[in-house]
Amino acid sequence: xxxxxxxxxxxxxxxxxxxxxxxxxxxxxxxxxxxxxxxxxxxxxxxxxxxxxxxxxxxxxxxxxxxxxxxxxxxxxxxxxxxxxxxxxxxxxxxxxxxxxxxxxxxxxxxxxxxxxxxxxxxxxxxxxxxxxxxxxxxxxxxxxxxxxxxxxxxxxxxxxxxxxxxxxxxxxxxxxxxxxxxxxxxxxxxxxxxxxxxxxxxxxxxxxxxxxxxxxxxxxxxxxxxxxxxxxxxxxxxxxxxxxxxxxxxxxxxxxxxxxxxxxxxxxxxxxxxxxxxxxxxxxxxxxxxxxxxxxxxxxxxxxxxxxxxxxx
Length: 314
Ligand code: BG6
Prior knowledge:
Elements: H1 2-10, E1 15-17, E2 21-26, E3 29-37, E4 42-48, E5 51-52, E6 74-75, E7 104-110, E8 114-120, H2 127-130, E9 140-149, E10 152-161, E11 167-173, E12 176-178, E13 185-188, E14 194-197, E15 202-205, E16 210-212, E17 217-221, E18 230-234, E19 237-245, E20 249-254, H3 256-261, E21 275-289, E22 294-303
Antiparallel strand pairs: 1-2, 2-3, 3-4, 4-5, 6-11, 7-8, 8-9, 9-10, 10-22, 11-21, 12-21, 13-16, 13-18, 14-15, 14-17, 17-20, 18-19, 19-22, 20-21
This protein binds 6-O-phosphono-beta-D-glucopyranose.
6-O-phosphono-beta-D-glucopyranose binds near residues 94, 174, 198, 218 and 251.
C-alpha cells in the first residue's frame, strides 16, 4: 500500500487547470513546465529543466485588471496604436484586445508532444472594447495552440474570419525573455534586414552582424525570410533560438532606464537589465481575411545548441 502511494506521488500530472490558469508539466521531466494565464492566454512561465526562461515583472498584474507585463502577451488585431483614422482598428487601445480578454481553455489536443488549445471569439471580449474594432461588425475565432517539449515551446495562432465582413489584422507574440545581463547579450541574424526604428521614426537596413544593447531599443525588423533563426547569445553561449513559421516580422525591444521608469507595472526598476523582448509577428502590414478564410503563424522557441551565423551572400 505504501509502495503504491509512493509511486502515485511520483506520477506527473501533465495538465492542471485552476480557475485562472493552466499548467503543463513535461511527462518525463517534472522540472520542465509552462504556465498559461487564462487572462490573455498569456504564457507567464516557461521552466526548462528548472530554469525560468521568460521574464515577468514583479509588478505585473495577474488578476485580469491589466495586460501582463512579461511572459508572452498576445497582440491582436492591431500592433501599437493605429494612426490612420480611417482604419477600423483606429479606436482600439495599444496592441488591441487579445491580451486583455479572458480566453476559453479548450483542453488537451495531444498527449505527445503535450499540446493544449485556448480559444477567443467576440463573446469573450469586453463588449465596449469589441465595439472599437470596426463598430463591432467582425466575427472571428482565434485558436492558440501550445506545445511543450523537453527543450522547446511552440505557440501557434490560427485566425479565422467567421463573419461576412472582410477584416484586416496584425498579430504578434510579444515574448519577454529572461536574460542574465542585457549588457552581455547579443542577438544575431538580423543583419541585412530592413527595419523601422520606432525611436528615430526612420527606416534603414540593419548593418550589425550581431545586435548589442546599451540604450533604449525599439525596432521592427520587416519581411525576414523564415529560414532565419535569431539567437540570444549570453557570454558566448546560445541561450535561446527564436524561429518562426509564417511570421515575417520581428520586433526587438528593451525599454532601458527612462522608459521602464515610466511604466508603473515594471518592477524592479533595474528589471530592464534582465529582460529582452523578441516578438515574432505580422505587423509591418495587415493580413486580410475574407469570410471563411484562415491564417496561421507560429513562434518556435528552443534552448541551446551552437551559434549559427546566417547572412546574405552578395
Ligand atoms: C513593443 C513596442 O512591442 O511593446 C514598444 O515596440 C512598446 O513601442 C512595447 O513600448 C510595450 O507596449 P505596452 O503597451 O505593453 O506598454
